[in-house]
Structure formats: structure tokens, C-alpha cells
Amino acid sequence: MNVPIARTSLTEEEIQSVLAPLRSGWLVQGPKVREFEELWSAFTGAKHSIAVTSCTTALHLSLAALGFGPGDEAIVPAFTWIATANVVEHLGGKVVFCDIDLNTFNLDVTQLAEKITSRTRVILPVHLFGLAADMEPIMQIARKNGLAVVEDAACGFGSRYRGQHVGTFGDTGCFSFHPRKAITTGEGGMITTGDDALAAKLRRLRDHGAAMTDLQRHLGARPYLLADHPDAGYNQRMTDIQAALGGAQMARAAEIVAERQRLAGIYDKEFSALGWLKTPAHIDGLTHGYQSYPCLFQPEIVSPASVVRINEARNNWMDRLQKAGISTRPATHAVHMLTFYREKYGLRSEDFPNAWAANDCSISLPLFHGMSDAEQRYVIQNVIETAI
């Protein structure tokens, strides 16, 4: 049997949904994008939702709209997908890494305040793998220091912090629709915000800085006149083809989240006796969306002295699982260990020891909507039999 790390599962109705914009002739940002945005706001509770081309462009637009630029600093978790840091670099800013809590893989809020300088402008907390970052103290620190908060909620679909959906705490929230995510449009992203003025600016910036969209212009009294451009914007618009697919999936949004939670619960139960495998944390008041199922491989206590040995053992275990037809991945990467950031900022792996440990000792197991009982049983059997 072959079990992938993730697999896209679409209904026939969802597949057929993309034909509507193809038949209508409206392929660019239009009525389907507007519908998808409204459905996203209804699910998350966000006041405004703005569809864009990816979570990376959602993060980029958010920082740009907030006036982030050269010389400014942004605090970024050291363990996250590289895009969280890259958008800071793209705007000429400086990335200031903060270590993570190894229990949750999220930003360690106890280290956050010491990272703030006179140049800090924004905090970029990440709701990694579907577990919410600790937003209450993050927001308190941000307000105390007059900082913006841009939530990287790429993995955050269905994730809640004390009942409130992630992406609705900071100035903006940024979501991903990559195929490994619960809702997918192939590539695509969404920005959420409760700020009317910021929402209007984000909508302009995604569309070349135009004062109105093509759809608004075509529905207006003089559709033949072009819009004004108050901003020098970008072309980061989602197409109606993508939005039709995303919007169709929203009809079963709760079902998709529940399925992932059910699968994770089975893993939790079956692996509960494995002392060498730490499964995802359960935190009171936090609802995990399980974009993935990240574990910490710990055949011995994880420490700077043991990381190299554990990493070799983990990689050998991943090899054995791959030979059995089971795909795994490191949970994600420690960005400060990647060549660009390591060389630019003169960083060492041990500068952020928890991120280093997560980079070298984590493993994500297959979990996706549509995973069969047989596939999951096969993964469980091999995890138990092939590791220690």
C-alpha cells in the first residue's frame, strides 16, 4: 500500500464548479471571488475577507498595506515555512527570529518582548500545523508597544483560540489554499481583517492599486470608463476559476475539519503508549484544525547534545517508512538554518535551540480529508513496528 503525506479530495460537484466561470466567460477576479470571500467571512467570523494569489502574497500585501518598509523589523518564529520571513525581506525589512515552544511548535511568547527594538513594527505569529499561537499575550505585547500583528494562518483553517477563529485577532490574518491545506484552490490565499480602511487598501493593492475592481466597474453606470489608481499596487488577484472551486468546498467546511480531527484523534489514541513519539499538543481552550499531524521523534531526551543522534535515527526511520510506501516529512524547517538567512544574519543552528530541535527531530505523518480507514491502519501498524 502507498499512503501519501497528503491527497486532495474533491467531490464531483466541486470539480464541476469550475465549469461555471469557464462557461460564463468571466475568468478573472469577479463574482465567484466575491462569493468565496463572503463564505470565508461567514465561516471564520471575519468582517472582511480578501482573496489573493497565495498566502505569501497575503502576507506581503498585509505588510505593504501597513506601511512596513526598509529599515523596519518584524519578529518571526524561527520554525515556520520560509515565506513568513521572505515577505519581510521582499519589503526591505529585517527579520528578527524568535525561538519556539517545543511543545506546541509555535512562537515562545516568553521570549517575545526581549526581541522588540525601536525599529520593530510588526509581529508575525504563525498558527503552525493548525494549532493556534498564544494570541492573548501576543496581542497584549503588541498593543503595549504599538506594534501591528499579521497572523500567518496558512495552516489555520478550522483552528480556534478560546472559541474565536484564528486570523481574526491581529490587524490581518493570512490563509493558504495550497493543495496540502484543508480547502484548496491549487494556489491561492485569503486575507482577513476587521479594519474597514485597511480592507479597502488591501483590495486596491491586490488589483494594481485600482479604486474599484473590474466587477464593480462593469456593474456601474459607465462600465467603459477605467478606474483611478490611488496606489501603486500589484497584480495579486485570485481568478474566478480558483474561487469557484474554493467556494464549492465551503459547503462542507465543517465536515472537512471534523474529519481531520477524527483522524488525529485515532492517531492520538493508538500512539499514546509510545514514549518515543510525542504527538501534537492538546491545549485547553484551543481547537486544533490539523492541517497536518506533526510529531516529535524522541528516542531519548531532546537536547542540544542529542539532536544530531536523534536526527540520524529519525531519518533512518523515515527511510523505513518510505520503503513501506508511507510518505512522511519533517514538520517544516527552521528558517534560521536555511542558507539565505544563515549567511545573511550570521546565524548558527544552536542560536534558536528549540527551532533546531524541531527542524531535526520532527516528523509529520499522513493525515488528509478522505484518508481511508485501511490507509490509516497501515500507517499506525508501520509506525509502531518500524521505529524503535
From TrEMBL:
Any one GO molecular function term: transaminase activity
Domain of life: Bacteria
Record flagged with keyword Lipid biosynthesis: no
Transferase among keywords: yes
Signal peptide, first to last residue: none
InterPro entries in UniProt: DegT/StrS_aminotransferase, PyrdxlP-dep_Trfase, PyrdxlP-dep_Trfase_major, PyrdxlP-dep_Trfase_small
SUPFAM superfamilies: PLP-dependent transferases
Key words, A-Z: Aminotransferase, Pyridoxal phosphate, Transferase
Pfam families in the cross-refs: DegT_DnrJ_EryC1
PANTHER family membership: DTDP-4-AMINO-4,6-DIDEOXYGALACTOSE TRANSAMINASE, TRANSAMINASE
Family designation: Belongs to the DegT/DnrJ/EryC1 family.
Protein name: DegT/DnrJ/EryC1/StrS family aminotransferase
Annotated organism of origin: Rhodocyclus gracilis
